[in-house]
């Protein structure tokens, strides 16, 4: 019995000295994936009560091919009476099956009508194609088996008949080859999606739409741009509206109107727009009809939008440079006990324009950091500082740490402390953080 821990070593030594005879079996090839089905053709039609039939179905995805079987090894003749261990050749692994092709989506249908009952005369097949099945995996080939599993070879040294002559017998083994694993089955393709029905209660074609623009800030102030968007409501029960046996997606869209107008920028921010030149503003009419704006990356803006007739206006009430948001600096720590406070300075002078919260993490220690032993700090406060403990004077924030709702002991004069303040600043949908750290003695 081998000693504990030596069995793995003996196996490694055997693997390093073993020789494979014959020829290993090759792995089978992976099966070809099935082609995806083609999408059905989308159409627009006008219905007037005359029976009509439309086929907009997507085609089916192809099945994936089966993986190729693994190839048998060439077992050959096992060498006899050799002075090394042997292993028979392995069988080849089976190839994986090919993936099934996805079904093609059904075509979308836009229907113009004046009488809703006319939809009952329209038969539509806009079903998605069926998914192709994944191919089966190929079978692995059997490995070769040894003809002789063990033998002994005698090795002699010295001169026969002399005192230095000696012989020893060494036992060698042969291990069977491994059989190749079976290939994995290919995944099935995805079902095609049924086409969607869109209904427009009019006979005239919808006008083209231009729902979004990207222009320079100053350009939009001086030169309004035209935007338009067709609006839709999503409803359920599409198949019940059509001729019996029809197949479309259950949810359908219904045209409910149009928003269009000249978009302009009304700049009412305290700082002139000229200080924010560069970059484009993207204005867009959303699917619900609201007007939104996305400003250049370097600009934070707070805005509202209004609509009066065909006039769409983006009103900017405040704006700051993004680079100025995190220009905060320590203003010092002073006092002790209930009068302990820390100051944070806004070097960019934007304190009045931004919403600012402070998260405070305060750790104190009774040890002297100047000693040879590493001080042990204890967290005594880790939370957002209440708004009534923050006072803004000009561009200086005063944080009344001594009034935190905790025991006053950590604030006594001479206490060593670590203070981390994370400023969270926001304007409109924009938000950024800046961390300030201090270590010292109250």
Explain the overall architecture:
5% of the residues lie in helices and 38% in strands. The protein is flat, with a radius of gyration of 40 Å. The relative contact order is 0.11. The chain is mainly beta and 442 residues long. Mean pLDDT is 92; it is low at 1-15. The strands form 6 sheets. Strands 2, 5, 9, 11, 12, 15 and 16 form a 7-stranded mixed β-sheet that branches. It has a 4-stranded mixed β-sheet with strand order 1-4-8-7, with no helix packed on it. Strands 17-18-22-21 form a 4-stranded antiparallel β-sheet, with no helix packed on it. A hairpin with a 2-residue loop joins β21 and β22 (396-399). The protein has 3 domains: 13-202, no CATH class; 206-232 and 257-322, no CATH class; 326-441, Immunoglobulin-like, CATH 2.60.40.
Write the layout of secondary structure elements.
Layout: H1 7-17, E1 19-20, E2 43-46, E3 52-55, E4 86-87, E5 109-112, E6 122-125, E7 150-157, E8 166-175, E9 197-200, E10 212-216, H2 217-222, E11 225-236, E12 251-267, E13 280-285, E14 291-294, E15 299-308, E16 311-321, H3 322-325, E17 328-334, E18 341-346, E19 355-365, E20 378-384, E21 390-393, E22 396-399, E23 416-427, E24 430-441
Parallel strand pairs: 1-4, 2-5, 3-6, 4-8, 5-9, 9-12, 12-16
Antiparallel strand pairs: 7-8, 10-13, 11-12, 13-14, 15-16, 17-18, 18-22, 19-20, 19-23, 21-22, 23-24
């Amino acid at each position: 019995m081998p000693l504990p821990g030596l069995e793995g070593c003996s196996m490694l030594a055997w693997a390093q000295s073993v020789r494979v005879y014959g020829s290993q079996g090759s792995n089978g090839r992976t099966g070809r994936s099935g082609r995806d089905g083609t999408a059905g053709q989308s159409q627009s039609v006008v219905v007037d009560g005359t029976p009509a039939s439309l086929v907009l179905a997507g085609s089916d995805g192809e099945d994936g091919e089966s993986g190729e079987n693994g190839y048998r090894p060439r077992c050959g003749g096992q060498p006899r009476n050799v002075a090394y261990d042997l292993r028979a050749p392995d069988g080849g692994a089976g190839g994986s099956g090919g993936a099934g092709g996805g079904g093609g989506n059904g075509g979308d249908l836009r229907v113009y009508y004046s009488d809703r009952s006319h939809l009952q005369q329209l038969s539509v097949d806009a079903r998605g194609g069926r998914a192709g099945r994944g191919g089966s995996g190929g079978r692995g080939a059997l490995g070769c088996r040894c003809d002789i599993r063990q033998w002994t070879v005698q090795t002699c040294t010295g001169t026969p008949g002399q005192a230095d002559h000696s012989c020893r017998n060494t036992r060698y083994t042969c291990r069977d080859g491994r059989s190749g694993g079976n290939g994995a089955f290919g995944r099935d393709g995805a079902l095609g999606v049924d086409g969607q029905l869109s209904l427009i209660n009019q006979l005239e074609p919808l006008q083209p739409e231009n729902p979004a623009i990207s222009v320079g800030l100053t350009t939009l102030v001086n030169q309004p741009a035209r935007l338009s968007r067709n609006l839709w409501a999503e409803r359920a029960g599409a198949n019940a509206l059509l001729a019996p046996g029809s197949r479309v997606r259950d949810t359908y869209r219904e045209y409910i109107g149009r928003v269009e107008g000249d978009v302009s920028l009304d700049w009412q921010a305290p700082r002139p727009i000229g200080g924010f030149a560069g970059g484009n503003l993207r204005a867009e009419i959303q699917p619900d009809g609201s007007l939104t704006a996305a400003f250049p990356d370097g600009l934070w803006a707070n805005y509202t939008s209004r609509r009066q007739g065909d006039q769409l206006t983006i009103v900017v009430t405040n704006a700051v440079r993004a680079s100025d948001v995190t220009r905060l600096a320590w203003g010092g720590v002073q006092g002790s006990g209930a009068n302990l406070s820390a100051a944070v300075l806004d070097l960019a002078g934007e304190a009045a324009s931004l919403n600012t919260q402070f998260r405070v993490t305060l750790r104190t220690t009774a040890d002297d950091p100047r000693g040879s032993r590493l001080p042990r700090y204890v967290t005594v406060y880790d939370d957002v500082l209440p708004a009534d403990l923050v006072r803004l004077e000009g561009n200086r924030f005063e944080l009344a740490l001594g009034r935190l709702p905790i025991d006053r002991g950590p604030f006594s004069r001479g206490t060593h402390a670590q203070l981390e303040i994370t400023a969270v600043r926001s304007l409109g949908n924009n938000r950024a953080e800046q961390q300030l750290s201090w270590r010292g003695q109250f």
